[in-house]
Design a protein that fits this description.
- The chain is mainly beta.
- Helix content is about 0%, strand content about 45%.
- The chain contains 1 helix and 17 strands.
- Strands 12, 13, 14, 15, 16 and 17 form a 6-stranded mixed sheet that branches. Strands 3, 4, 5, 6 and 7 form a 5-stranded antiparallel sheet that branches. A 4-stranded antiparallel sheet has the order 8-9-10-11, with no helix packed on it.
- A hairpin with a 2-residue loop joins strand 15 (about 160-170) and strand 16 (about 170-180).
- The two termini are about 25 Å apart.
Length: about 210
Amino acid sequence: MLFLSGAKRITLGFFFLQNEGPNGRKWHTATQMKNKLIVLGGEANNKQFMRDILVLDLDNMQWSRSAVALPEPVAGHSAVAVGDSVYYYGGISRQGVYYGTVYRVRCDATGEPTSIEEVPTRFNNNSNNAAAPAAAAAVPVRPCSREGQTWTLISPTKVLMFGGFGLRNGIRDFFNDTHVLDTETGLWTKLETTGTAPTPRFYHSA
């Protein structure tokens, strides 16, 4: 059974699935793409890290496993739908390796995944307060690799990332930094915020 709750008012309902569905897991992502729910990776209850892409058809409540798979098993990553693709970032491996790569899962007109590719990224070294020099902007520098961050679409092509947990100068640490990725250009920009920043955190929601 699948349990859903309405956003404007609390509406409780049970939806009976047409097949048994995937094994239980945590720290995966679930992203709606048209009439499909795209589930990426996660950690299964036997501590197995997954690299599969699962698809739930929201019209007939039928689960299927995509022929497309993630490059590496991953959990604790973040994903968001941008146009006809699902972009995902970060996460951790079973061996404790933190990821800092952005991937794009392309989908067809029905929302079914068709391919996956790494997104080349670069970093705006002067944050959002000034334009970075051309030489500096070309240096492929990214935010610290991490898990448990939030990734939120804030415009048709831009995604905001906040927080997480990972390696900072070789030391495990919690983050409260804020970055924006332009999915069209691959440009990361670190936002300089004002006021009292939230305490560092991970596995929060947005």
